[in-house]
Each structure stands twice: as C-alpha cells, then as structure tokens.
C-alpha cells in the first residue's frame, strides 16, 4: 500500500469509514466515469428534437451556454465537498457532515433515496435511448418511411426552407441513396427485449472483476471523447448547405411547439427546450461516488 493510499485510508477512518473497496483507480479512470455517465452525444441525440421544436436555434445554442455555466458553478461546489469528504455516498454524506442533528438524518434519507432513484431512472433512460438508436439504424438500413423522390413536408417559414435538401438523386452533394420502400420497424416486444438486454449487459459489466471494469470504464471515456471530436470535425466538413448566421444566432422558433403541444407562451416554450442541454449534464457527480476506489492523484 503506497503512501498516498495510506493517507486516504486514514482520512476515511477519520470520517468514520473503514476502507473496504479496492483502491486503485487513477485520474482518467475516475474522470471517465463522469464522461460516460454524461454521454453527451447520446444525450443530444435523444433530446435534439425537443430543442429544435421548443425554441429552435436560440435554445440549441445560447441555452447550452447558460445551462453549462450554471452546472459548472454547481460542479465546483460539489468538487470542493468531494475533496473534503471523499466517500462513495457523496451528497447524502456531505449533508450529514454539514447539517445539524435535527434536520440532518431526514435530509440525508431524502437525498440518498432521490440520488438512488435518479440513478435507476438514468439507467432506464439510457437503455431506452440505445433501443431507439438501434431502431433508427435498422429503419435507415432497410428502407425509409417515405419515398426518396418525394421529400416530406417541412414548415413553410422562410428560415427553414433553405435547410431542406432536394431528395432526387444527383441534385445535391448531400444526397444519399437510402433503401426505398417501407423500412423495418421493431415491434413493441422486440424493443422491450432490447431494452431489457441493455440493462442486463450493464448489470453483467458491474459483476466483472475489478480490472475488467477498470478497462471498460476507460474505454467508454475514450469512446465518448473520440465520438465528440469526430462529429465536430466531420459534420461541418461534409455539409454543403448552411443556415444563415441570423437564423443560427437569433431565431426563436415557436410555431412547431404551438402546433405540437398547444403551448403558446414563449417563456414556457423556452423552459421546455432547456431539456436539451439539461439532459446532457446528468451524472457529473459520478467521480465523487468513486472516491473510495480512487487514489489521491493531486
């Protein structure tokens, strides 16, 4: 046991904890937990439509910046607490240390259960997203919902019109000849089986020996980072049509939200659109929950 690990064990003992979990995760492994939990690309995929419908470009761009700044402030506060109380319990233990005997136990109980239920909901949500992704891949590889020679109807508002590429072959560099005809859709039973399979695989990974979980965690972190870099580079590189700067930076779309949900108040539409950036900032407390398995790498 190294000097750093001995110090961490003593610190846990000072907090009333005994070192039980194997301590060996390094800097990147700890960070990879958070990177994989946030899974930015998967989060955007599942909520991008929500942002486009509820506010459009203003939400997709500026709301991202506002939500990011707010979450950075929260993360900095959590990081300070995690460094002072490095236990796997995280938030409920922090509350125990910072509150009094009157309110502490009740607040710890509520916080612990909310955190657990949130993690369960996050796992179910991620499994549902993976199911939808596989369904979309299957649909696009076996056929399309409409004929490639007849584009779907798009909103008639002028800013969106230039974004509709012709669907006829050879008329634009963006054209891709997708399989024609009705595509294959998963049945409800097939979708549910994939959903359950995702949860089963996740459970199985967590039962593997320590070193394998370590490798899988780091691989997930690298995969998410690489995916973001590829998307940032490839999409602008291959796109041949672009919206105007005015539309990207200033356009606030409400027509689709009003027709789809009946919401007419712009503030409420904006709040609904915040689901896009907010969903991508779920899980950044993951590093704190792995504190008892991580070495002090400061």
Automatic annotation (TrEMBL):
One of its GO terms (molecular function) is transmembrane transporter activity. Pfam families: AA_permease_2. The chain crosses the membrane at residues 28-48, 63-85, 192-210, 222-240. One of its GO terms (biological process) is amino acid transport. The keyword Transmembrane helix applies. It is found in: Membrane. Keywords: Membrane, Transmembrane, Transmembrane helix, Transport. GO terms for cellular component: membrane. It is a multi-pass membrane protein. PANTHER family: AMINO-ACID PERMEASE BAT1 (PTHR45649), OS04G0435100 PROTEIN (PTHR45649:SF26). This is Amino acid permease/ SLC12A domain-containing protein.
């Amino acid at each position: 046991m190294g000097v750093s690990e001995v110090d961490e064990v003593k610190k846990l003992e000072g907090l009333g904890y005994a070192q039980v979990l194997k301590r060996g995760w390094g800097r990147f492994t700890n960070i990879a937990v958070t990177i994989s939990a946030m899974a930015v690309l998967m989060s955007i995929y599942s909520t991008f439509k929500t942002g486009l419908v509820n506010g459009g470009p203003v939400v997709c761009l500026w709301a991202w910046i506002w939500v990011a700044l707010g979450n950075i402030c929260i993360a900095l506060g959590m990081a300070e607490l995690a460094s002072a109380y490095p236990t796997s319990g995280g938030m409920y233990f922090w509350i125990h240390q910072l509150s009094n005997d009157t309110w502490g136990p009740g607040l710890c109980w509520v916080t612990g259960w909310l955190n657990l239920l949130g993690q369960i909901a996050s796992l179910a949500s991620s499994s549902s997203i993976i199911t939808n992704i596989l369904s979309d891949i299957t649909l696009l590889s076996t056929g399309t919902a409409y004929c490639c020679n007849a584009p779907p109807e798009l909103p008639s508002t002028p800013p969106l019109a230039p974004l509709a590429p012709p669907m006829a072959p050879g008329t634009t560099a963006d054209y891709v000849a997708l399989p024609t005809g009705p595509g294959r859709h998963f049945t409800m039973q097939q979708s549910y089986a994939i959903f359950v399979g995702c949860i089963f695989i996740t459970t199985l990974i967590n039962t593997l020996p320590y070193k394998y979980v370590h490798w899988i965690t780091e691989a997930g972190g690298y995969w998410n980072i690489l995916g973001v870099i590829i998307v940032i580079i490839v999409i602008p590189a291959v796109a041949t049509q672009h919206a105007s700067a005015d539309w990207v930076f200033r356009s606030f779309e409400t027509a689709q939200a009003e027709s789809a949900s009946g919401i007419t108040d712009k503030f409420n539409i904006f709040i609904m659109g915040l689901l896009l950036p907010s969903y991508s900032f779920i899980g950044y407390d993951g590093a704190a929950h792995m504190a008892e398995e991580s070495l002090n790498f400061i």
